[in-house]
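Slide 14.
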Amino acid sequence: MQTISILFFLRKSTKCSLPTIAVWFTTSPIFFPFSIGRYFSGCAAPGIWANIFEPKRKKHKRKAQCLYLSGIMKVSFFIAKRLMAEKPLQRNGKRSGFSRLIINLALIAVCVSVMVMILATAIVKGYQHEVRDKLIGFNAPLQISHLDLNNSFESLPIERDSILETLAIKKEGVTYFQIYATKAGIIKTEEAFEGIVLKGIGANYNWDFIGSNLKSGRLPNLSDSNASQEILISAITAKRLNFKLNEYAYIYFIQDPPRVRKLKICGIFDTGMGELDELYAYVDIRQVQKLNNWNKESISGYEIGLKDYTKTEDMRNEMASITPYNMGLSSIFDLYPALFDWLNLLDMNVIIILILMVAVASINMITALLILILERTQMIGLMKAMGAEDKTVSQIFLWMAANIIIKGLLLGNFLGIGLAYLQNKFSWIKLDQKSYYLNRVPIEINLSDLVWINTLSFIICFLLLLLPVKIISKVKPIKTIQFN
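Slide 15: predicted structure.
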């Protein structure tokens, strides 16, 4: 009677037909105590219970043999798949929905954790990328200037070196090699005044960054034979001093003798980098050369643009070999060390978020697996009584856990990537530009980030689930059957 009960229990658990269960039951190595197949070497004997269903045995033999040949892993997966599709039985014969609730909660926990990890990584990567681009836009990755310890904007001049310019622009990875000159002054109206640094640039200046952040007006015209009388100022300066397009700005320079320049405002830019926006204004380099009493070949230095800013230090070493002895070579990281250190610290925030999210997902999965095991104690006892090893039973629950994790990962990736795409396209979430240098939350998704987030999440969660399945080895078949 006990064997027949086991047959009907397996039928109910796996939803297979009774003849298939009988053939599988009498030939499977899991159920050796009830099979006579082990007494025959080299063949699969029908077993004593298979004879009862002999008329239908041929019909189900092929299906039973497939189950038999599939091995322990396939049997575990087969049972796990059936168990996931139904609610467990209670002692009163009714189905319990509690485990289904726990499974759904674990699924939601994995989904939300993965979604948060994807969004956190994408936001931090995007923020770092955009702020770095803005810093590099104002000052190129590499600068060549006079070799002195003067950190003010009243720099000592260097003479243009045609050999250096020719060799530098031919370097692989260099996008531009341009001249510049700076001069500090005071921009003044009748009501107010502010300090400002005129950055003189040449006709071949790379306007990609400033041009993309041009709020109104146009860029200065530097193609004339005479020095341009135009100036490009920031939106912050224009707002504070109440400047409009095509108005004239008076800029005073404290020197001996004092000088003043009347320049026409041709355009207004706004990059969002308040500290740098309010500092710089762009003019023709010939204006700065005249103010400094320099000749046409005297400049403050060179700016070197790179295709990949991450190779700044490598290019710095290459450029050092061709830079004259009286010139110093510096990088963007030397100019703004505090800002770049702050950006690098954001990576630590991401690591903390990832650890917390993996911990949340793992704890929920462990809880769900423990509840699944405890609710299936009767099934575990019966399978162990029929000869199933702890490893086989453990694999059933690990398959169930893996099913939850994979579904959670897929759903989490869908939501995370979907929300990131919507934010990147519509910019729904805004930022205070004065505080964060950006007016929206930036997004940057890398395939490599998605791969390691999903891989590590699955591996860590799955490895931690090996701990709760140890409880299966403590289940005693005799006590379980007697209790039920």
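Speaker note: Residues 148-324 form one domain.
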